[in-house]
From TrEMBL:
The keyword Hydrolase applies. InterPro entries: GP_PDE_dom (IPR030395), PLC-like_Pdiesterase_TIM-brl (IPR017946). Its EC number is 3.1.4.46. This is Glycerophosphoryl diester phosphodiesterase. It comes from Anoxybacillus ayderensis. The keyword Hydrolase applies. Keywords: Hydrolase. GO terms for molecular function: glycerophosphodiester phosphodiesterase activity. One of its GO terms (biological process) is lipid metabolic process.
Amino acid sequence: MTHIFAHRGSAGTHPENTMASFIEAARVHADGIELDVQLSKDGVVVVIHDETVNRTTDGTGWVGQMTYRQLRKLNANYKFKQYGFCPIPSLQEVLEWAQHTSLLINIELKNNLVPYERLEEKTIELVEQYRLASRVIFSSFNHESMATCHQLAPHIETALLYMEKLHQPWDYAHTLHALALHPYHRAVDRLFVEAAHANQLLIRPFTINKEEQMKTMFQYEVDGIFTDFPEKAKNVREKTLRSL
């Protein structure tokens, strides 16, 4: 069955990458959550997508130039003001909560633009601390980072994020010991999924928010989708499976 990952939590209905969004994903019984990590100025692994706080919080500035204490003072409720004050979570806070759920956890390392020193090591340490290695997937557009994660923790799954169609990406993925490809959904068709599976790779496209796109991906039998609307995706998956 295709797993449904709540992209940045239930980001279509709640403030992205906040505890409110992750708790909502668990409430609607998503199979997993996806979140983004970066480092604060004082080396804390924090959960936020953009390299600056400008879009999703009431502050301005670069994540890596602010201390964790400074970041925690910002309200990350973005366009969902009805949820009140939503602080930027640390990865530790999310994992401490997630260990009491059955959720899969896709951790995207946001180090393709800002080269955060030791982001891989710090992230792996937290995953091991909460004994969540078997439920975690590391992903990134920075494929060197994924190679580093595999070297440091070969027992934790890594996945390669990318935007454009690639020629036989399974050959490339195998050189990095990645177990999955996470392509932009427009780079995915049925033949691609079949070929990837034949080459022992999992396929999880992003970001699938429209019902027709969801239905198509379920029909392709991809291994997972990332969506801002996990509750909607669950309903579409159920309808699609009934029609097959």
